[in-house]
């Protein structure tokens, strides 16, 4: 059987090369998407290897990924979940646990977050009954500034939950210091920023919890998937519980009696000796991944450094090319946060001419087969879903509203060649001139 398995895996690698290998995008002919995944033969080999186990749910590949990702990320623990949005849900939910006693988040508490962002960064807290205090972002970095957060804090503020904008870190060190001094929880949404650094540390290592996404658009992919990171044993335990049905038991799937007293617990009003595998201490979910997803993530993780390096190189090349063609006259160009080394997710441009409709530019780019995306929800308060939520706005949200009407991003992901980037730069500047 070992020889047969090896033969299957070898054939898988051969199939990948014949089916998918050696293809490059041709500008003006192929669609140049704003985001994309970069796959290799070892991704398919790992996928086949995991499928041959017929285990299906989280198993050896998931265990290995959690260990290796935590080490790569610089965190003590990582927990795999089925999406970046689920990661945000689990990270937030962990902070509502009764295990945290007086620090547990409660309905009616306030949290600070940018109005310019992605819905599932803020949705779990809103759905729980917390009240958001929306703040503006900086036009250069598209991140919330530490002083803006500090000014927005009230006695009811218990949480700051914000994302690193398109791979460009917010000043995590200063924000963490502000939060720690006031006993406020900090959750870093790193879904678009895997591998980014600030003040010599990786993003996600400053907050109490951090989240990542492995959707195909992101830095590495497993199709659907995400992770929660923390270095706190208590937060790891409660986050794992929320991910795994809310149960108190921490035995992995297929294993029993890890604690050595499966029938020796007395919790709540349950009879003494009630099976620990069926004792629930949180109102949880089932948000685990399959081992097949984890297997692809594991092979992708080995190439993370090269992916991040390619994104940084493409960002620098595209920015220089747009500037060389005179694009600085027409666009506000993205800038890295001070003391940071971003892991760029996209190249965000904002039209300087407020009278020029963004729609015409986007239509031109799409007609030239250059994919575009907006900065997610723009001003979330303009979205139908948030029309009736209880909230507070701190400041005037001027930059958020400008981003909503005049900003967009194009791709710098590793599958784009320099020929693609030159074509994109030329099209962008010509479109802005007309």
Describe this structure in words.
The structure is a single chain. By secondary structure, the chain is of the alpha/beta class. Helix content is 38%, strand content 13%. The chain has helices at 2-20, 41-53, 60-73, 84-94, 119-128, 146-152, 172-182, 233-243, 291-301, 304-324, 358-367, 398-406, 418-433; strands spanning 77-81, 110-114, 131-135, 157-163, 185-189, 197-198, 201-202, 209-213, 226-230, 331-332, 340-341, 347-351, 392-393, 407-410. It starts with a helix and ends with a helix.
Short note summarizing the structure:
The protein is of the alpha/beta class.
Protein topology:
Blueprint: H1 2-20, H2 41-53, H3 60-73, E1 77-81, H4 84-94, E2 110-114, H5 119-128, E3 131-135, H6 146-152, E4 157-163, H7 172-182, E5 185-189, E6 197-198, E7 201-202, E8 209-213, E9 226-230, H8 233-243, H9 291-301, H10 304-324, E10 331-332, E11 340-341, E12 347-351, H11 358-367, E13 392-393, H12 398-406, E14 407-410, H13 418-433
Parallel strand pairs: 2-3, 2-4, 3-13, 4-5, 5-8
Antiparallel strand pairs: 1-9, 6-7, 6-11, 8-9, 10-12, 12-14
Name the poorly predicted regions.
none
Shape: flat
User: How many angstroms does the end-to-end distance come to?
Assistant: 65 Å
Strand content: 5-15%
Average pLDDT metric: 96
Count of DSSP helices? 13
Structural class category: alpha/beta
Strand runs, count:
14
- Helical content stands at 25-40%
- The ordered H/E elements are HHHEHEHEHEHEEEEEHHHEEEHEHEH
Q: What's the main sheet like?
A: 8 strands, mixed
Radius of gyration: 23 Å
Give, in spatial order, the strands making up the sheet with the most strands. Answer: 1-9-8-5-4-2-3-13
